[in-house]
Automatic annotation (TrEMBL):
Belongs to the CheB family. Its EC number is 3.1.1.61, 3.5.1.44. It catalyses: [protein]-L-glutamate 5-O-methyl ester + H2O = L-glutamyl-[protein] + methanol + H(+); L-glutaminyl-[protein] + H2O = L-glutamyl-[protein] + NH4(+). Gene3D superfamilies: 3.40.50.2300, Methylesterase CheB, C-terminal domain. InterPro entries: CheB-like (IPR008248), CheB_C (IPR035909), CheY-like_superfamily (IPR011006), Sig_transdc_resp-reg_Me-estase (IPR000673), Sig_transdc_resp-reg_receiver (IPR001789). It comes from Haloarcula saliterrae. Its main location: cytoplasm. The lineage of its organism: Archaea, Methanobacteriati, Methanobacteriota, Stenosarchaea group, Halobacteria. It is an enzyme of class 3 (hydrolase). This is Protein-glutamate methylesterase/protein-glutamine glutaminase. Involved in chemotaxis. Part of a chemotaxis signal transduction system that modulates chemotaxis in response to various stimuli. Catalyzes the demethylation of specific methylglutamate residues introduced into the chemoreceptors (methyl-accepting chemotaxis proteins or MCP) by CheR. Also mediates the irreversible deamidation of specific glutamine residues to glutamic acid. The gene is cheB. The modification 4-aspartylphosphate is found at residue 56.
Length: 354
């Protein structure tokens, strides 16, 4: 049971509304009402004041993006986008996140009712987690644009050949984009990003980070090499292993080994293999997210001599992954998102001049 969580379910398909409502009700989440378009969703939020809204992306009269924007302006309420598995939907889903949605969950294709029931525990978990997010705090989080680093502009000298491994889940996309936007190219990190995100969305996510960052960012492919000033985003439904490291260049291997911590890609896989292979400076970061993925990875990185950082509870959409990492006793610093880039740079700074 989830302790009185109330939801509004918005979808233009009567069948899909029924499936989602049944799953949530079975999981202990009360469905206050259903809405068949964005306009009805906005009205339902006014009337029922729910804890969370599950929002379809494409709907008649008013789509999910417009509805999310209006809800955030009128009565900020956590919104979980339910997105179909298409490239076009990937674009609009990220746009909805920009408008204030907390996260998204991909609606299965094919035999919808069969697949939805298979995913029902995940859906109940994410709706419950999103319902607890303080969207008043989340939606006001600033993000630097490309070339306008939010990190301190002190003159720093950096250690050579550092690698940064970032792990995140629920609420993470905006946080990853902010951190990457604030990292100066001069720090010369090799960056590995593991964001729990399905296949079909990680490519668009990497493009968004590339647009906002001074780093060259791309979706990981099997055998991809990474040098300073570059970043790889783990591909959806593939674990990203660090296969080897030589002369400041690393190479990754993608696998479809079984999920770890119920997820693929798993943060633990990338952190564990980075700790085993990389002998130059390492920094590990755990951002907002549900569950415990990354906790073991942080232990492995710390044992390998890395500096480790976790996002604080106040600025995390969901304080699950960072909390579990902190509980290991292997996290060096706990920082709010606006101080994260500076904390990462401090980990590789050898000298600061005024």
């Amino acid at each position: 049971m989830t302790g009185g969580t109330r939801a509004v379910v918005a979808d233009d398909s009567h069948f899909m509304r029924s499936v989602i409502s049944d799953i949530l009700e079975e999981g202990g989440i009360e469905v206050a009402t259903e809405a068949k378009n964005g306009r009805e969703a906005v009205e339902a939020v006014r009337t029922h004041e729910p804890d969370v809204v599950t929002m379809d992306v494409e709907m008649p009269e008013m789509n999910g993006i417009e509805a999310t924007e209006q809800i955030m302006a009128e009565r900020p309420t956590p919104v979980l986008m339910l997105s179909a598995h298409t490239d076009e939907n990937a674009d609009v889903t990220f746009e909805a996140l920009d408008k204030g949605a907390v996260d998204f969950f991909t609606k299965p294709g094919g035999e919808v009712s069969m697949e939805m029931s298979r995913l029902k525990d995940q859906l109940v978990d994410i709706v419950s987690s999103v319902a607890r997010v303080d969207v008043g705090t989340q939606s006001s989080t600033p993000r630097a644009g490309r070339g306008t680093s939010g990190a301190s502009t002190r003159n720093r000298s950096y250690t050579a050949n550092p690698t940064l491994v970032v792990g995140s889940s629920t609420g993470g996309p905006k946080m990853v984009e902010q951190v990457m936007a604030e990292l100066p190219r001069e720090a010369d990190f090799r960056v590995l990003v593991v964001q729990h995100m399905p296949e079909g969305f990680t490519g668009r996510f990497s493009e968004r980070i590339d647009d906002r960052s001074d780093y060259d960012v791309r979706e990981a492919t099997d055998g991809a090499r990474l040098a300073g000033g570059e970043a790889l985003v783990a591909a959806g439904d593939r674990h990203m292993e660090v296969k080897n490291y030589r002369n400041g260049r690393l190479r990754v291997k993608l696998t479809q080994d079984p999920p770890e911590n119920s997820v693929r890609p798993a943060v633990d896989v990338t952190m564990r293999t980075a700790a085993a292979v990389i002998d130059d400076p390492l920094v590990g970061v755990i951002l907002t997210g549900m569950g415990g993925d990354g906790a073991d990875g942080i232990v492995r990185l710390k044992d390998a001599g890395a500096r480790t950082i976790a996002q604080d509870e106040a600025t995390s959409a969901v304080y699950g992954m960072p909390k579990r990492a902190v509980e290991t006793g292997c996290v060096d610093s706990v920082l709010p998102i606006d101080e994260m880039a500076n904390g990462i740079l401090d980990a590789i700074t050898t000298e600061v001049s005024s």
